[in-house]
Predict the structure.
Amino acid sequence: MNNTSDIVLEQMKSRRSVRKFSPQMPERWKLEKVVEAGLWAPSGHNKQPWAFIVVTDEETKRQLAEDNKAFCDFETTNPFYDAPAYIIVLAQKSTRTYVYDGALAMGQMMIAAHTLGLGTCWIHRARQTFELTHWQKWLRSLGFEGEYEGIGHLAIGYPEGALPKARPRKEGLVKFV
Ligand SMILES: Cc1cc2nc3c(=O)[nH]c(=O)nc-3n(C[C@H](O)[C@H](O)[C@H](O)COP(=O)(O)O)c2cc1C
């Protein structure tokens, strides 16, 4: 391995889901870099079917958390862990690979955020949330026409305290043939 691949792999391995955030808002340029990493993800037939919405507005975050909570099958005060910002990822249902494409963009953004000293956590239930009429209307008000499905949200911000410890990798999941 050369030096760059060592560094990239180390960043991938040291990323952890963060569930405790400092209230400090990440710098705008960092959020832009994270989204850039999503925009450069590969996609089936290069359709780039996604939409990324960076949310820092308190009222919008509150509503997203409230709706998300309604779909949780566990107890939580805030499913977004009071993160200062959220990044919503949606993808156009008209393409064959939109779910894979959206998930890959999420992955790239999580790594990019980590390299910038930011913590993220994938927050699920975006599909159910963005099926709600008021969020569909909101998407149209932002200029997103067409049928979008919610893929996921990233809670994003500076981690509060040390990153959680990684759990060991499962054995026997890889074969070379
Ligand atoms: C598709 C997907 C959905 C997830 N949904 C949630 C979620 O709603 N809330 C949460 O706290 N973590 C969620 N996670 C984070 C996982 O729990 C986490 O990635 C896993 O425990 C491994 O930990 P690590 O990310 O620190 O390696 C999700 C992760 C993925 C990939």
